[in-house]
Amino acid sequence: MPTPLLEHDLIRTFVSVCETGSFKAAAERVRRTPSAVSMQMARLEDQLTTRLFEKSGRSVALSSAGEELLNYARRILSLNEEAVSRFLGPRLSGLVRVGAPDDYETRLLPPTLARFSKLCPEAEIELVLGLSPTLVERLGRGELDIAFVAAEAAQKGGLPGEILHAEPLVWLGRAGGTAMFQRPVPLALPGYNCPWRHMAVEALERAGIAYRTAFSCEYSHGQMAALMADLAISPLPASYITPQLERASPDLGLPALGNVATHMCLRPGADDLTHTLASVARETLTTPNGSMP
């Protein structure tokens, strides 16, 4: 018996449901009715003979099989777009000016830039690293074509855009270090304009936990140096966890910090090259429920 082929339309709708978190929102994206989207997902489940979603109120969550399929689905769509662009699409070229915080250059951007370079091999990328508020200002002045910034900075700057991913902000320190156990809590903090700083300080003050600023730097690489030297602990996204940096144990009583989100903003009147990069970023950075890949 030949292996059945998964319908491209079903795969695209499935990814839209995963990225938006609901059939209704996915229906708006794929320009179908919610009932049509529901029927498509039922057909996909029938084809694969497995349940892909777990209903949770008005939202939907992926089952373990659904999470596994999402990885395949994104690869299928990516290869399809790459093949079509190679033979049918216009050969986009030119300069795209990208703004991002300093930590994104190694933590988030590589998969996006790698895929974009395959789709648009003749494009030139100019990467501008800086603080989110500064990048928002530069985008507003037309000095950048696209920027990936902290959601708070985008909202404060009044920039339209979309949240690509969110993840927990957590307390990190050197694995096996002693800074986590010190009181007052020694902190390595980002600059005053960074929301991570405010989230950490406000959480400690609400919890009545004494702290002191042991180290400060506007850039996350500076915080990493302080952590590796075991000078302090720092509020950082969970994706920073490595064998060298560990999350503080709940037994230490440090307060939860909530989530941080990344906003993607495009310059008004952005060209096709910039929109292509934005499309790639949506596929490589966005995961179900707005979490990081």
- Sheet-strand content, in percent, reads 15-25%
Structural class: alpha/beta
> How many strands in all?
11
Count of DSSP helices? 11
Task: Tell me the CATH topology of the largest domain.
Answer: D-Maltodextrin-Binding Protein, domain 2
- The average pLDDT value, as a whole number, equals 87
Order of helices and strands: HHHEEHEHHEHEHEEHEHEEEH
Q: How many domains comprise the coordinates? A: 3
What's this entry about, in short?
By secondary structure, the chain is of the alpha/beta class. The chain contains eleven helices and eleven strands.
Report on this model:
With 293 residues, this protein is of the alpha/beta class. The chain folds into three domains: 8-87, Arc Repressor Mutant, subunit A; 93-163 and 261-290, Periplasmic binding protein-like II (D-Maltodextrin-Binding Protein, domain 2), CATH 3.40.190; 167-259, D-Maltodextrin-Binding Protein, domain 2. Helix content is 43%, strand content 23%. The chain is built from eleven helices and eleven strands. The chain has helices at residues 8-20, 23-30, 34-48, 64-87, 104-107, 109-119, 132-140, 151-156, 195-207, 220-228, 272-285; strands spanning 53-56, 59-62, 93-100, 122-129, 146-150, 162-174, 185-189, 211-216, 234-237, 245-247, 259-266. Strands 3, 4, 5, 6, 9, 10 and 11 form a seven-stranded mixed beta sheet that branches. α1 (8-20) crosses α3. The longest helix is centred in the N-terminal third of the chain and has 24 residues, at 64-87. The chain is globular. The two termini are 35 Å apart. Pfam families: HTH_1, LysR_substrate. This is LysR family transcriptional regulator. Belongs to the LysR transcriptional regulatory family.
